[in-house]
Amino acid sequence: MKRHNKSSLFLMELILSILLFSLCSAVCVQLFVAAYQKEQDAQALTWAAMLCDSVAAQIRTGEKDFDFYVTSYDSSFRPCEDEENPAWRLNVVSGTADDGQTRIARLFVYPCSQSPASLPPEDAAIYEICVAY
Fold first, then answer.
1. Are the C-beta atoms of residues 97 and 104 closer than 8 Å to each other?
2. Which domains are present in the chain?
C-alpha cells in the first residue's frame, strides 16, 4: 500500500512539472513571436525611410519632376511594376506652399493590404516625409 502512494505522488509531481514546463514554453513562444513581429516592423520602417530619402533626394536635385508618383514594391522592398499584388506602395503628392513659390512634396509608404476604400493611404502610412523644393 505504501508503495502505491509513493508512485502516485511521483506521478502527480511529474504531471505538475510537465504542466509548469508547458506553461513556460507557451509564454516563451509568445515572446519570440512578438520579438519577430517587432523586428519585421522595424525592418519595414527602415526600408520605407531609405526609399523616401532616395526619392526626396531626386526631388531636391531636380532630377525628376514629381507631381503625382506611385511605385509598388514586393515584400522585400524590390520594385515590382508587373506584380499584381504588391506588398508596399510609395506615393508622392506635390503641391505649392502658401507663399505660392515653394513647392512641397509629401512622400509616404503604406502597406497594400490596406484597402483604399476603408482607409486613405496617408492614414495607413508607416512612414511619411515632406520635402520643400
1. yes
2. 37-132 (3.30.1300)
Query: How far apart are the C-alpha atoms of 91 and 29, rounded to whole Å?
Result: 37
CA 34 to chain CA mean position, Å: 13
**Rounded-to-integer distance, Cα 5 and Cα 11, Å:** 10
Give pTM, 2 decimals. Answer: 0.72
Tens of pLDDT, residue by residue over 25-51, are 999 999 999 999 999 999 999 999 999
Nearest to 95 by CA among 86, 87, 104, 108: 104
Residue 114 backbone dihedrals phi, psi, to 5 degrees: -75, 125
Phi, psi of 71 (to 5 degrees): -130, 140
Cell of 47: 526600408
- Output the nine-digit C-alpha cell for 73: 514594391
Classify 100 in phi/psi space as left (phi over 0), alpha (psi -120 to 50) or beta. Answer: left
Nearest to 127 by CA among 51, 74, 70, 66: 51
Confidence of residue 1 (pLDDT cuts 50, 70, 90): very low
Report which of residues 53 and 7 the model is more confident about: 53
pLDDT above 80 for 81: no
